[in-house]
Design a protein that fits this description.
Oligomer: single chain
Shape: elongated
Distance between the termini: 62 Å
Strand content: 15-25%
Order of helices and strands: HEEHHEHEEHHH
Largest sheet: 5 strands, antiparallel
Number of strands: 5
Structural class: alpha+beta
Length: 223
C-alpha cells in the first residue's frame, strides 16, 4: 500500500478515536523543510501552511523538541504569537501535535486539530501517541525502501555509463588501431577539451556510430 494511503488511514483513525478532534494531518520533515502529505480535512492544510509560513506552531515545536504539544487556546498561546491569531481567525482553537520518532531521528509530526477551545486533555494526547507510533514506522519503512530504490538506480546508471564508455573505447580502437589504454586516453582528452563528462563524449560517439551503421546500404545476398 502506498505511503500516503497508509498515513491517511492512520490520520482518519486518530480523528475517530480522539474525542473532540475535527481533523488531522501528517507532516514529514525532509531536507530541513516541512510538508503536510496527508490531511483529513481542507482546513488542516490551511493551518499547517500558516505555521510553515511563519516558522512557528505546534507541529514545528513537536518536531523540533521531540515532545507532544497540546494547546487549548491557540490564539492566546504565547508560544506562537504570529501563528495563533491567524489560526484562531479560521475558527481552530485546539491542537495536539505528536512527533513521529524513529530510533534515528524525528521524521515528522501528526497534528490533530479541533474547533472548540480546550478540546484535548492528557488522555487525548495518549490516544494520539498510539497512532503516532505506526505512522513513524510507516514513514521509516518507506524511507528505507526509497533509499534502496535510489541506490539501485544509481548502481544501474553507473553500470550503463560504464558500458557506454567501453563501447566508445572499442569504437576508437577499431577506427584508429590503437590499444585500449590509448583509446581511453583519447576519450578523456576530448572530454577535458570540450568540458563535458566522459560518459557524454562516449555516448555521442556511440550514437554517431549507430547512425552511420543505419545509413549504410545493406548488402543484398547473392542469388
Amino acid at each position: 500500500m502506498p505511503l500516503p494511503e497508509v498515513l491517511t488511514r492512520i490520520a482518519r483513525y486518530a480523528v475517530q478515536a480522539i474525542p473532540g478532534a475535527d481533523g488531522a494531518g501528517l507532516t514529514l520533515l525532509e531536507h530541513h523543510r516541512s510538508d503536510t502529505i496527508v490531511q483529513t480535512a481542507d482546513f488542516v492544510g490551511e493551518v499547517d501552511a500558516i505555521q510553515y509560513g511563519v516558522g512557528e506552531g505546534p507541529c514545528i515545536t513537536a518536531a523540533r523538541d521531540a515532545v507532544t504539544v497540546i494547546s487549548g487556546s491557540i490564539g492566546a498561546d504565547p508560544r506562537w504569537p504570529r501563528f495563533g491569531g491567524r489560526v484562531a481567525r479560521l475558527g481552530v482553537h485546539s491542537a495536539i501535535s505528536l512527533p513521529l520518532v524513529t530510533p534515528d531521528e524525528v521524521v515528522g509530526a501528526m497534528n490533530v486539530y479541533a474547533f472548540a477551545k480546550n478540546a484535548f486533555d492528557e488522555r487525548a494526547a495518549e490516544l494520539g501517541e498510539v497512532f503516532a507510533v505506526p505512522a513513524a514506522v510507516a514513514v521509516q519503512n518507506a524511507r528505507v525502501l526509497e533509499d534502496a530504490r535510489r541506490l539501485s538506480e544509481r548502481l544501474q546508471r553507473t553500470l550503463d555509463e560504464r558500458m557506454v564508455i567501453e563501447r566508445a573505447v572499442g569504437i576508437v580502437m577499431s577506427r584508429s588501431g590503437v590499444e585500449e589504454g590509448e583509446a581511453r586516453a583519447r576519450l578523456t582528452r576530448l572530454s577535458q577539451h570540450e568540458h563535458v563528462k566522459l560518459v557524454q563524449v562516449a555516448r555521442t560517439l556511440v550514437e554517431e556510430a549507430a547512425r552511420r551503421a543505419r545509413s549504410r546500404p545493406h548488402e543484398r545476398p547473392l542469388d
